[in-house]
Write a structure and sequence with these properties.
about 800 residues; 5-stranded mixed sheet; 5-stranded parallel sheet; globular
Length: about 800
């Protein structure tokens, strides 16, 4: 994606300078206390340094006020962000503590007296640009579902969807705001040469240094000015179609309150009676000091009744009767907060220690539902790259989660083993063989990996020389479809090379498939179906057969070429019937990259029109792109980051953390392998599947960070503690100690959520829900362990119970992610 400033902006403001620090893969849940202290210290320093009069007189304020006047905005109405914040502080107000990263950049803004804001990079649509508004462009203020129009001539930042900020600097919008879940962010500091450009350069570098120390991540700084109006980064932003898909998915996957949340909602509906609104939610507050559950029902009703939400909340809370699950109810800021009884928390923890019974209970959610999960999709004659790795890892985890909640899951893999890419690969490898005076049979003696890498080189060569050899390669492609003897021997041998190579990885990643579907087996059936549908849902156009998706708000796509060859779209019609024949599914989830979102919208619509049986059964899980920190790749040029090379690098990075004393070589290798797969899988699965993912080898193996090895290490720590106790195996605890400490209580208040987190992951097709929950459990256990002894204390029985439950939770959770646990590390 690109960051741009329109040329017209510099015509009016030639001295404008913009710094854009970017951080990839940070953790916005770290350093909460530290970030707020930094903000409060900055406020104290500001009050000591400025009065309102001296603030307005400062050149760094005056320049922005003059700038606003120049592009037609009244600075008394639309006050520049840094001035508005500073005024609030000087008048003895406080800047709200929103989340750690926001606290930090607000502190930098008032310290350096310059606008400084941050946005979520994963929420950007296309490129990001600073330009003069034509008037009427949509901007959604934070917390609002209604847009406000920009004023003509106003200086605004926006992407291809709508505006992110108005009046130059950082009146943020709801969509792109930074939250505690944000992982990738960009931050903008704008200024003027001769006023604060040197300050901005210094502050931007200091910000990145402090931010990455506090929250982790990889960083870079972009600089934009009149001589450099556009900068491109390797990060791939979402398209408009991606946002359309996400909107539909969120609507489909709207969270259903079950278990305790469902009981609380039922309780509220009984109290509300005729005034009930099913639109309100019952969820966990971000800050546990506000209870175990919280509801926004009063906020919803206040919009209808035009009353103060806090008063409505108090009225509702006063009508809630004591129950077996609720300890107390409080009202804060219009929200009704519920605190669970300790006995409920204890029972929630105990259930996890009975894994079979726990699974049976959770398994009622999708009991007897038949779900096909189609994933991996590596095309033969190409190497397995990190994009395939993401769909492979996500698909397997999703299958496990769905199985756990009761579904009958069928794992499918649809692979392209015929078509232009195969022709290019065979043509290229034949040329390489002629240059080296070797044959396919000579190469057949090499390892699966070496043969696959050789095919990759051949494919890159075929792509590079296609334009000069188009007729020859196209003829070879036609020969493949017609199964001519001149090519079939080479084709079948090299196809098997690919399949053998892929099978090694499927086994290594703990994945199995119930059936492999191939394009070569589907093509003829697809062609027959396409031709039979001409005059109904398909039509002829310039000799080809097309689907006119424009009738349905989509776009036209070719299903059979003028040469009579079925396209990918045409083959999908044959695949739909082939998959239904082997497994009559209730839902078929295609785990495929979001660059195919438009393709799947058309194909699924065509399939549903072809046969009504398929309606609402086909589903595209639109996967975000995965980027390896510091590298770009393209299979066409041969610059491919292969899965085996990534695994090798990760394993070498893990070895220094393994305690080898007293261990055999085989044991060390097993730990290295299990940790490697755990590191790679967790790095992929901790991100929402629909968001872009940054894979950072260094962070993936961080034993103290948000990583698979961190969870495996926490499990091993629990097993070490359990191995030292003389207390017999226990799954229950008679009672919670009276003087339970804060760390124990914080941990206990998490376990009961495990059941609903698994169900939520299944509902949303999102294993990241489980990954984030496991990190929370591990953090809270390690915080407890760091402060309190377990063995030999009077609370040993109770603390062994907490340790046992932590271990059980991590083992079950990692199993759902397809990650093995280790007894020692």
């Amino acid at each position: 994606m690109k960051f741009k400033i329109d040329k017209n902006v510099f015509d009016k403001f030639p001295d404008l300078v913009v710094a854009i620090p970017i951080i990839y893969g940070f953790d916005n849940n770290k350093s909460k206390t530290e970030s707020e202290k930094i903000l409060r210290d900055a406020e104290d320093n500001l009050r000591n340094k400025f009065t309102l009069e001296s603030l307005i007189a400062d050149n760094r304020a005056r320049k922005y006020m003059d700038c606003f006047v120049k592009f037609g905005c009244d600075p008394d109405i639309f006050t520049p962000a840094h001035i508005a914040l500073s005024k609030r502080v000087i008048e003895n107000g406080q800047i709200p503590s929103i989340n750690p990263m926001v606290n930090l950049y607000n502190a930098f803004s008032i310290t350096n007296m310059t606008p400084f804001g941050g946005e979520d990079l994963d929420k950007v649509c296309g490129d990001f640009k600073l330009f003069f508004a034509e008037g009427g462009e949509k901007w959604y203020p934070i917390g609002s579902k209604k847009s406000k129009p920009a004023v003509e001539g106003e200086l605004v930042w926006g992407d291809e969807l709508n505006l992110s900020t108005r009046s130059l600097n950082w009146r943020q919008c709801e969509r792109t705001k930074l939250t505690s879940n944000s992982k990738n962010g960009y931050f903008v500091m704008d200024g003027f040469r001769g006023v604060n450009d040197d300050l901005i350069k210094k502050a931007a570098n200091e910000f990145l240094k402090q931010a990455t120390e506090m929250f982790g991540g990889e960083s870079e700084i972009l600089w934009l000015d009149a001589k450099n109006m556009e900068v491109e980064i390797s990060f791939v932003s979402k398209s408009k179609k991606d946002f359309e898909v996400i909107k539909v998915e969120r609507k489909k996957n709207k969270k259903v309150e079950m278990g305790i949340a469902g009981e609380i909602k039922k309780m509220l509906l009984e109290v509300l009676g005729a005034n009930n609104s099913s639109e309100f939610s019952v969820d966990h507050p971000a800050n546990t000091q506000f209870g175990d559950y919280s509801t926004n029902v009063a906020m919803i009703l206040s919009k209808v009744e035009k009353k103060n939400p806090n008063e409505i909340a108090k009225g509702i809370a006063s009508l809630i009767k004591p129950s077996d699950i609720i300890e107390k109810v409080e009202v804060v800021g219009g929200f009704i907060n519920f605190y669970l009884k300790k006995n409920v928390l204890k029972e929630g923890a105990e259930k996890i220690n009975y894994e079979i019974e726990f699974k049976n209970k959770v398994g009622e959610f999708l009991k007897n539902k038949k779900i096909m999960v189609e994933f991996a999709h590596p095309n033969t004659h190409k190497e397995l790259h990190i994009g395939h790795m993401r769909t492979l890892i996500t698909g397997e985890s999703l299958a496990r989660v769905l199985e756990f909640v009761g579904a009958n899951v069928f794992r499918a893999n649809y692979q392209g083993d015929i078509g232009p890419h195969v022709a290019k690969a065979i043509w290229g490898t034949r040329k390489l063989l002629s240059q080296s005076n070797k044959s396919f049979k000579d190469w057949d003696k090499e390892s699966f990996g070496e043969k696959s890498h050789f095919l990759g080189k051949g494919y890159a060569l075929g792509c590079a020389e296609y334009e000069d050899n188009k007729d020859e390669i196209d003829k070879l492609n036609q020969s493949l479809y017609e199964k001519e003897l001149s090519v079939m021997s080479d084709y079948q041998l090299t196809r098997q090379w690919s399949l053998d190579y892929y099978n090694e990885f499927y086994e290594r990643f703990g994945t199995r498939f119930d059936k492999l579907f191939f394009e070569s087996e589907i093509a003829n059936k697809g062609k027959e179906i396409v031709e039979s549908l001409v005059g109904t849902i398909l039509e002829k156009s310039e000799g080809a057969i097309v689907f006119d998706g424009e009738k349905y708000g989509l776009h036209k796509r070719v299903f059979e070429t003028a040469l009579g060859t079925p396209t990918y779209e045409g083959k999908e019609l044959g695949l739909a019937y082939a998959q239904r024949e082997v497994f009559e599914f209730d839902k078929n989830i295609h785990v495929v990259a979001n660059e195919q979102a438009g393709y799947f919208q058309v194909v699924i619509k065509a399939i549903e029109l072809m046969d009504e049986w398929f309606k609402d059964r086909e589903h595209h899980l639109s996967m975000g792109m995965v980027t390896l920190v510091g590298r770009k790749m393209s299979s066409r040029t041969g610059d491919v980051v292969t899965v085996d090379s990534v695994l090798d690098e990760v394993k070498e990075s893990i070895r220094p953390f393994i305690k080898t004393e007293g261990m055999t070589k085989d044991a060390i290798e097993e730990i290295a392998e299990v940790s490697t797969i755990g590191a790679v899988k967790f790095s992929i699965l901790k991100s929402d599947p629909m968001s872009n993912s940054i894979f950072d080898i260094k962070k993936s193996v961080d034993i103290e960070g948000d990583s698979g090895p961190y969870l495996q290490y926490t499990y091993a720590r629990c097993q070490s503690v359990l191995g030292k106790t003389k207390i017999l195996e226990q799954k229950n605890i008679e009672e919670i100690p009276e003087n339970i400490n804060d760390e124990e209580m914080a941990l206990l208040r998490e376990f009961y959520k495990f059941e609903e987190k698994i169900i939520e992951a299944a509902e949303r097709y999102n294993p990241a829900v489980i990954a984030e929950f496991l990190l929370t459990i591990a953090r809270k256990y390690n915080e407890f362990y760091a402060k309190h002894r377990v063995i030999g204390e009077k609370e040993e029985v109770w603390r062994i119970f907490l340790t046992k439950t932590t271990a059980s939770t991590i083992k079950i959770g990692l199993g759902l992610l397809g990650i093995k646990t280790l007894e020692k590390m």
